[in-house]
Amino acid sequence: NAGVTQTPKFQVLKTGQSMTLQCAQDMNHEYMSWYRQDPGMGLRLIHYSVGAGITDQGEVPNGYNVSRSTTEDFPLRLLSAAPSQTSVYFCASSYSSSGQETQYFGPGTRLLVL
Amino acid sequence: GIQVEQSPPDLILQEGANSTLRCNFSDSVNNLQWFHQNPWGQLINLFYIPSGTKQNGRLSATTVATERYSLLYISSSQTTDSGVYFCAARRGFNTGTASKLTFGTGTRLQVTL
């Protein structure tokens, strides 16, 4: 299994540009999430999904859209990039089995907005 | 939402030393996990431990849910243990929001020779 994969690894955008961060998992996990990590802070939840066709907002959803058309993919769209969105973005997937839930993270996408 | 606080924020150890990292949370939880972020940024799950004690090699974790804290023990530390350790928790008693974890700000550990 490849686990959780993210593309691109690094991206530079100009203010106002839009882009999509890709996330895919091959573990058939029902739950997927997007987090951002800023210096000196923990990870903050942007959006999450509990299954195909079902998404919901996390702690910091403004400026981001998500969709979940398949179990495997969970793309994150930046509608109009702003310097405040400069961050490292992590995608995660998890499953619930026998009362255990464990999150698996992708390698991250480092985004710089000029 | 739930508040998650970790201490200490920074820790420097000599190789071979033991350490205890603490995570306090403000509400009842049904999901508590510990993660290690290595110096290259990769996040690895260490433990799923909403209550009780687990051990994995030199690492062990204990969560006392009634007192709202969790401890991560690292014994005989090695330089490869360096990085940031995060605690993450989800409030409540229901499933269905399995992805909605709240993270602490982490403990940065440096293990020196």
Q: In summary, what is this structure?
A:
The complex is a heterodimer of chains A (114) and B (113). With 114 residues, chain A is an all-beta fold.
Description of the structure:
The complex is a heterodimer of chains A (114) and B (113). In chain A, the strands form 2 sheets. In chain A, strands 2, 4, 5, 6, 9, 10 and 11 form a 7-stranded mixed beta sheet that branches. In chain A, strands 1-3-8-7 form a 4-stranded antiparallel beta sheet, with no helix packed on it. In chain A, 0% of the residues lie in helices and 55% in strands. Chain A starts with a strand and ends with a strand. Chain A is globular and about 45 Å long. Chain A is built from no helices and 11 strands. By secondary structure, chain A is mainly beta. With 113 residues, chain B is mostly beta strands. In chain B, 0% of the residues lie in helices and 58% in strands. Chain B contains no helices and 11 strands. Chain B has strands at 4-7, 10-14, 19-25, 29-37, 43-48, 52-56, 59-64, 69-74, 83-91, 102-103, 107-112. In chain B, strands 2, 4, 5, 9, 10 and 11 form a 6-stranded mixed beta sheet that branches. A 5-stranded antiparallel beta sheet of chain B has the order 1-3-8-7-6, with no helix packed on it. In chain B, strand 7 (59-64) and strand 8 form a beta hairpin. Classes of the chains: A mainly beta (114), B mainly beta (113). The interface between A and B is medium-sized, with 31 and 25 residues.
State the helical fraction of chain A: under 10%
By DSSP, the count of extended strands of chain B is: 11
Rg of chain B from C-alpha positions?
14 Å
Mean pLDDT of chain A: 93
Put simply, the count of helices of chain B is 0
Let me know the average pLDDT of chain B.
92
Series of secondary-structure elements of chain B, N-terminal to C-terminal: EEEEEEEEEEE
Shape of chain B: globular
First-residue to last-residue Cα separation of chain B:
41 Å
Number of strands of chain A: 11
Written as H for each helix and E for each strand, in order along the chain, the element string of chain A is: EEEEEEEEEEE
Quote the beta fraction of chain B. over 45%
| Biggest sheet descriptor of chain B | 6 strands, mixed
Helix/strand class of chain B? mainly beta
Oligomer: heterodimer
Low-confidence runs of chain B? none
What is the strand content of chain A?
Answer: over 45%
